[in-house]
Amino acid sequence: MRRATPDLLERTRVMVEPALVEAVGRLSSSLAVPVRYHFGWIDAAGIPVPNPRQGKGIRPTLALLSAEAVGAEAEVALPGALAVEIVHNFSLVHDDIIDDDPERRHRATVWKAFGAGDAIIAGDAMMVLGLELLLDRPTPPRVAAAADLAGASASMIAGQHMDMSFHRSQAVDVDLCWEMVSLKTGALLAHASAVGAILAGAPDQTVRRLRSFGLELGRGFQAIDDLLGIWGDPSVTGKPAGNDLRERKKSIPVAVALASGSRAGERLADLYSREWLDDDRIEAAAALVEEAGGREATVSAARDCMRRAADALRGADIDAQVAAELEDLAAFVVDRDF
Amino acid sequence: MRRATPDLLERTRVMVEPALVEAVGRLSSSLAVPVRYHFGWIDAAGIPVPNPRQGKGIRPTLALLSAEAVGAEAEVALPGALAVEIVHNFSLVHDDIIDDDPERRHRATVWKAFGAGDAIIAGDAMMVLGLELLLDRPTPPRVAAAADLAGASASMIAGQHMDMSFHRSQAVDVDLCWEMVSLKTGALLAHASAVGAILAGAPDQTVRRLRSFGLELGRGFQAIDDLLGIWGDPSVTGKPAGNDLRERKKSIPVAVALASGSRAGERLADLYSREWLDDDRIEAAAALVEEAGGREATVSAARDCMRRAADALRGADIDAQVAAELEDLAAFVVDRDF
User: Fold this and answer.
1) B321 to chain A, minimum CA–CA distance in Å?
2) What does the DSSP 8-state code read for residue B42?
3) Is A160 within 8 Å of chain B by CB?
4) Longest dimension (CA), chain B
5) Do A157 and B125 make contact, defined as CB atoms within 8 angstroms?
6) Which A residues 77-96 touch B at CB under 8 Å?
7) Residue range A3-39, pLDDT digits in tens
């Protein structure tokens, strides 16, 4: 029977969280504090938080499903699920410093609560911990998973740097923007969607198909995330309205609008060249992105990604029920309000 | 014939540098810029530097010698030599941000030249690249080397965090200070001193002995580095005189002085509690550390470390000539001006 996405996310929480708590416990006690804080388990004073508001656990859920997709038990994927969740969170901790973001999940980011130094070193520790979890008992599938994670992390880091370089340039080529998204968001979701199959020793071709699914999911997810960065409800996103525009991000809808050659695109470029955008100008910029076709093109691109993600699964030699569950999960991730 | 340390360092440069250039070339072109800058190959504008002033290459030299110590060719250690050098440099790039250090090797640090964001992400990329170099072709010895490097990196990161926590506390227990040093400096030098033997498939007991040698070398090295941080010649250290005192570091000589129970120790604690130390006060603080016995105790502790390092080698089943060369290298590293 096809399992509902919320139930699968809840199963992940139950399976992964105790192991995550244990893994973080391997860090030195002082280093574990900012990491526990980031995961929402304690407040900045070290007091346990009763009902922490956490990430959805998309990546570990993908990892568990990708083991089941090739006929293995979900447990086989557990070290991979843990590792990818930790590495993903390493990237959030560092990105929040780099992007100067003061809030995540409705609370102060690690650098805001503990200082940039602690946030840098906590992120470093998480990155290494993720790889250590796979290298601890280095069976060939675990080593393959570790190498895949290292490669995905390298891509993610390159993507983040590309994103940063976009901030410095006036306009950004739309294709380059998608390449950045594939690296920054796609690579780690591709790994998450394949690591269970890698740990289960599945054939390369199946692993590749699952990886393609995750890559397209990541691209679709980022497209929607970019839309939410402009039109998202602050009470849902946990970030101020129009946040990406305030930071003059060259997100996909903005890149499309800037490259549109339209009058609205030119006016947007003019707004983006200013030192500071007040709330009225942010609203005006959002309207210009929409007028220049940035919103529509991004929604449509996200749909294309989802179609390609589904195609990747259909071509794979995997369990049909799990394939349907992976598609449901992808829809859940990407469909948020758009 | 026993080879001289400067010749061995030069051999490392010739062997490792082309491979290092190639490894850094695997990074995306924009990400490679701050990394190449850090290694001294280019200036901040991207122009090649003709005779770069570089690190001495102690860690890769240890790696190469540790392969020869167990009867293998130095080349066997090359991926380990590269990886440890890259990971060491990752830690320098991040530590410079955390410690707010504007200069290293007589030029601007990466964060100073490119901004903290680029320095964070360049460091992240280096950390992952180091591990990738070993996981690329995952033979069992390479996997063992990667796992050892990940463990050493985790220790190094924990040590750096411990060091940071010392800044926030008034006094620091001397034993705790040594524990910090063992983690922050010792762990990666221990890895460097063993990784060639690991890659050569040497027995565990030999690997353990070489690791002990490297750990003691690291402790001795840090003790001397702490002395140089107070009394070092700025034209040699590349840092302002008394820099560690200005930053009120709880280095080993300072921890010894603060714990001495002497009048000089009390006066030092008083100076350390001030907001800002001008040059006169830094000079006074240095004199107080010496008066309280911090300098002598640290010199003597460094000598003890060197003796234990030599003992570790004597107990190991390794080539006698290479053992002598390792001891020479240790003396070269530790003996700087003290």
Assistant:
1) 34
2) B
3) yes
4) 59
5) yes
6) 94
7) 999 999 999 999 999 999 999 999 999 999 999 999 9
